[in-house]
# Entry
Amino acid sequence: MLINRKFLLTGIALLIILVTACGQSEQSTSIAKPPTQQEVGEVREVNRQTLQPKIVTVTEETRQTYKWYCSQCHGVKGKGDGINAKFLTVPPRNHTKAAYLETRTNEQLFEAIKFGGLSVGRAPCMPAWGHTLAEDTIHSLVRYIRELCHCEAF
Ligand code: HEC
# Structure
C-alpha cells in the first residue's frame, strides 16, 4: 500500500514536470515572430540542464570544430565523402541531404553526436562526442547541420 502511494506520488510529480515543460515550449513558440536578418541562422533550443529555451548560433568556432572532428568522415562540406568514408562499413551520413535530415529531430541529431550512432539506432562507427565536446558546441553543430541541409525537422 505504501509502495503504491509512492508510485502515485512519483507519477504525479512526473506529470507536473511534463506539463510544466510542455507549457514552456508552447510559450516559446507562441511568441515566435518572423525572424530578423540578424536572427537568421539562430534557433531556440532547450538547455537540457535547466530546460530553459535558449538561442543557439553557428559561429566560426562551430565550422572549425566540424572541420577538425567531423570532416574526416562526413567531408569538409558535409557530403559524407571524407577521406575515412571508404573505410567504414556504414557510409557516413550526408549532411546536405534534406530528404533524410527532415525526418530527424534536432534532439535525435544531438543524441547521435553526444552519445554516438548506437544511441539513436544508427551504426556504432558514428562515434560519441560527449566526452570531447561541450553540450553548447553540440547544439551549434546540430544548427550547422541544419545549415548544410538547408532544412528543418518536419
Ligand atoms: C569515424 C567517422 C565519423 C566521424 C569522425 C563522425 N561521424 Fe557522424 N557518422 C558517421 C557514420 C558512419 C554515420 C552513419 C551512421 C548510420 O547511418 O547508421 C554518421 C552519422 C551521423 C549523424 C546522423 C545520425 C542519424 O540520425 O542518422 C550525425 C548528425 C553525425 N554523424 C554528426 C557528426 C558530427 C557532428 C561529427 C563531428 C563532431 C561526426 N558525426 C563525426 C561517422 C562519423
In short: Residues 69-70, 72-74, 84, 88, 90, 92-93, 104, 108-109, 112-113, 117, 120, 122-123, 125-127, 129, 141, 145 surround heme C (CB under 6 Å). Confidence is low (pLDDT under 50) at residues 17-30. The radius of gyration is 18 Å. The CA atoms of residues 112 and 120 lie 6 Å apart.
